Amino acid sequence: MSDKFDVIVIGGGPAGYVAAIRCAQLGLHTACVENWINKQGKPALGGTCLNVGCIPSKALLEASQRYYDAVNHFDDYGIEATSVRADVPKMIAQKDKIVQELTGGIEGLFKANKITWIQGTGSLLPEKHVEVTDQNNTKSTYSAEHVILATGSNSIEIPSAPLQGDIIVDSSGALDWESVPEKLCVIGAGVIGLELGSVWRRLGSEVVVLEAQDAFLPMVDDQIARESLKQFTKQGLDIKLGARVMASTVSGNKVNIQYTDKDGEQQLQVDRVIVAVGRRSNIDNLTLPETDLLIDERGLVHVNGACETNLPGVWAIGDLVRGPMLAHKGSEEGVAVAERIAGKHSHLNYDAIPSVIYTHPEISWVGKTEQQLKEEGVNYKKGVFPFMASGRAKAMQDTNGTVKILADADTDAVLGMHIVGAHSSELIGHGVLTLEFEGTIEDIAHTVFAHPTLSEAIHEAALGADGRAIHIPNRNR
Ligand code: FAD
Ligand code: AMP
Fold first, then answer.
1. Which numbered ligand comes closest to the C-alpha of 32?
2. Is the CB of residue 213 below 6 angstroms from any atom belonging to ligand 2?
3. What are the chain's domains?
């Protein structure tokens, strides 16, 4: 194997593997160092996202929602489904199959693009040398004109709930349980906690979510967050805000959790615990101290707007650097860096990156929230449309939720779109395109949306911003 490359990418998650593919497409001799060993004990590409993140969680969210609907909603459609049973080991196996197919697919793409996959743990040395330690502890050194750091992130562990076997687990452990815990505690009401809490709630667990902060989903538009909390509470997720976990002890098959809330010390006994208190970037052993790579005060690799580190020719992307810890953000940074290395122009609009929480209903947003616009003193207008008034949502019997569009009252430019509702992860693309094209309320109002679709709610919300929605009474007229 050659030990000299144009580009070496360290990390083969959605940031790193996409960067490697784009580099290779642009004619650069590219290698990717990746050390992931999957559940089957085999090296795998795809990182957190494909192995234990986006994809497996969505596979289980889908399976659990279908089970939940079969038990609770088929009757509403006139379908009799008796003796419906969740075969949890089979659900886990189908999730694993999806993961294996997709990670195998990346391996195929590497071969097709002639990317060298160096299996092992990479460490950046001075002068753009990379030392790789393989599974047998053998070290090899490679060098490149450019090095892209993309080692991603890992679950944060907290001393008040140390991981223990399959009883106290992180998000990866919660994707592999083969039986449904009777009573489950999720620590952290963030994106991952809510998604995994929903999976096990749908499959029958009694779920308590303990969240240290008083605010529910503070990064989400307030109105949408309030509406979501109502829906989750109706579904039986017992979300306790202002509840900080202080200690947990395993005794026999049970976990005793101590937490504090506004009333003082509280106790909770559960069968299993998911610790979902956030993620930290993987910087341990990424470089030697003499390399002088700048790490910021939050433990992230410091980069400028173009993902350049303080070392010439060394770039960093994905969860390892500032910005939302999202797969698509990392992938787009990977493409942008590859194009910059190849001397091309690149563009990544950090103000138009969508976020999604894949609960039911899904919560999706892009751009500014109403509370941000108020804080910034922007003269804004808003349009809101409930799915209750959508013909398609009615036909689906899935009417919970709202579309909210925020726009500059002076220029008409759309500044934010916020949706809680079925399939909002797909609908939010309309908002992303509108922001990317610097579109206005008038642009959306002039656009023809197919009938009957959920996307008509976006059209109506835009019309509503100017007091001319058709299917609801307009409040601002
Ligand atoms: P990673 O995916 O973490 O990949 C980094 C890779 O680098 C890993 O394979 C790691 O093994 C490897 N590595 C680390 N150090 C070294 C080293 N020294 N040498 C060699 N290899 C190394 N995001 C979304 O956008 N949508 C979602 O729906 C979503 N759902 C999620 C659900 C869960 C349960 C979790 C945990 C995360 C989810 N995320 C989601 C977040 C998403 O997975 C991450 O933002 C994304 O994977 C980050 O990509 P990355 O390439 O930066 O890092
Ligand atoms: P996220 O970073 O979006 O995954 O969310 C993680 C959530 O976990 C945050 O909202 C934190 O406030 C919450 N959290 C962190 N530590 C604790 C703790 N000890 N007890 C309860 N919640 C916590």
1. 1
2. yes
3. 4-155+280-348 (3.50.50.60), 168-277 (3.50.50.60), 354-465 (3.30.390.30)
User: What proportions of the chain, in percent to the nearest 5, are helix, strand and coil?
Assistant: 35, 25, 40
Closest CA to 407 of 363, 365, 442, 437: 442
Q: Indicate the average pLDDT of the chain.
A: 97
* pLDDT digits 0-9 by tens, 226-267: 999 999 999 999 999 999 999 999 999 999 999 999 999 999
Local confidence band at 289 (pLDDT 50, 70, 90 cut-offs): confident
Burial 39-71 (b: 16+ CB within 10 A, else e): beeebbbbbbbbbbbbbbbebbbbbbbebbbeb
The predicted model scores a pTM of 0.97
Among 277, 281, 325, 357, which is best to mutate for testing ligand 2, by the most ligand atoms less than 8 A from CB?
A: 277
pLDDT, one tens digit per residue, over 118-132 is 999 999 999 999 999
Which numbered atom of ligand 2 lies nearest the CA of 218?
Answer: 10
Annotated catalytic residues are: 451
Cβ–ligand 1 distance for 150 under 6 Å, the answer: yes
